[in-house]
Amino acid sequence: MTKEQLRIVSPNGHLGFAPTKEESFHIAAATKPDYYCCDSGSDDIGAAALGADRSVSMYQWQKHDLELMLLASREQNVPMIVGSAGDCGTKSRVDLYVEIIKDLAKEHQLPPFKIAYFYSDVDTVYLADRIKEGTRIEGLDNREDLTKVDVEKTTRAVAVAGIHPYVKALEMGADVIIGGRSSDCAVFAAPAIFEGFPEEHAYYLGKVLECASFCAEPYGAKESVIGTITHNDVKVTAMAPHQKCTIASVAGHAMYERSNPYFEYFAGGMLDMTHCKYEQYDEKTTRITGQKYIPIQGDTKIKIEGSGKVGEKYIGIAGVRDPYTIQHIDKVIQLSKEQVKEEFPTTNYHLNYRIFGKNGVMGEMEPIRDIQSHELGIVVEGIADTKELAEAITLMGTRQIFYARLPEVKGTAGTAAFIVDEVLPSTASYSWTINHTLPVKDPMSLFELNIETIQETIKV
């Protein structure tokens, strides 16, 4: 028998990125939701995590958030779902989360439960073969179609799962699901669709819950919210005592990141939010109706993300207080670049200067008012093929800020630029090489799904 409603708690907009706030989580858990769901990754963090196959979140924070969800969901005997494991959703990150779940089960002596997990990694050879056979792999965000050259530049690639592996895992009786790279919305839409609720409400539910308390006001991250789906509407309720889900906060969140804020695309269709109606249901809850889901005809298209290594990177930091140097900082940077080029005429490198405090505001933004900062902070990024070269280029580029030969400067008078004498090693630099959609006949074909039972460990 189809349920009349389903309640899903979203405790964190990015599991592990910063710790989940426990007070609002326990308030949510006390209401006995039907599912505990959380997204744990994003391409917003940049290409380095995927390229380097690493997390950008602290292990302890990841474990903290997984532990909260696991213990609450096992106590209630309801499913727990986490997508895009470990920030980038690669196989190693999925395995990391599965191992954490097993360790927690042992530590807390949990009764047996089924854990399903899937991998999203895509072999670049496979992508090259699809191009060779004539498959058009269309670019997103104004990119050209994927080429063999793009694939050759790619260090690592993942497919972005929709609802399909999650629904399949639920059909197999999974109690805990750890997903590889996934659509943020799919983590929440999948259980709603599995339970028989309309796609238009399920996908909107995913859209509004993916960032947790970002859909509430006043602004506050890492607080829990609960989404309630029926066959007629979606409601979203803030759990933190100081927050409310208002018409403005919910509508604003639903539309904030789209080039066309009224449409959201998924693997098999499109969510049309043009005619959404927002109502203040109660003091902490907003009700949403009017959204539509439009299926896309033909093959399913799965988004592929790929990252390629640019080079090793070092970072230098410089501070400038001299008014004359600040006034001519663009010339100082140009002179510094010229000195590096003169020292490394045949070396392949990238050198970037980020100026903070210029014109009274941060970075390269337009000035808010016509004032001159009393101090600039300059971050120098040097990238080259080896660590040794990257360090040398960054050191040279940073120190040349101090040695820049400006006109009208007599001796060392006024050249009050102070620098960090040693530059700092950084994670290697990566760039996005693939942001494309791949047509597939079977939406499960790119995802390897596994399921096993975690047995209770008997205390000795």
From TrEMBL:
It comes from Cytobacillus kochii. Residues 7-414 form the Acyclic terpene utilisation N-terminal domain. InterPro entries: AtuA_N. This is Glutamate mutase. It comes from the Bacteria.
